[in-house]
Amino acid sequence: MAERPKEMDDFLCEPRVGRFGSVNADGSPHVVPFVFLFDPEEGTFFVSTKAASVTTRNLRRNSSVSVCVDDGEYPFRAVVVNGEAQVSEPTGTDHEAQKKLVDHFYGPDMWAEWVTTPRAREIRIRLTVVPKKWTWWDQRRKLKGSVSID
Q1: Is the whole-model pTM more than 0.90?
Q2: Residue at 150 is within a domain
């Protein structure tokens, strides 16, 4: 069994906006920007999203996902994964998960403002993305690779 790459863990643990792709009912791609927490121990991505979102509807029908995380600055670094999303049942407003993401991405001082916004009152679900295929490159360190996880 192939092991997942760990060369890009530090990159993935930094606050970044990625792109999250799911499959629409007609088979076309649905891609949205997203923030996430990467778990280097498990090699998974944690996401909180609206229970009523197009992404959630897509994943309940087809759990296949693609994720792209890059920094957009030359020399480029990026990680692309294809895998499956594990979708929770609705979790209410799930301030616990939202706060973890807000603290990681925006900093801990943002929560007091965030919790007063309409987004903080939306019913949420939790997603765990379990990668099956990894592709990565880091032009700064002259690294690249691709591996499928059995």
Answers
A1: yes
A2: no
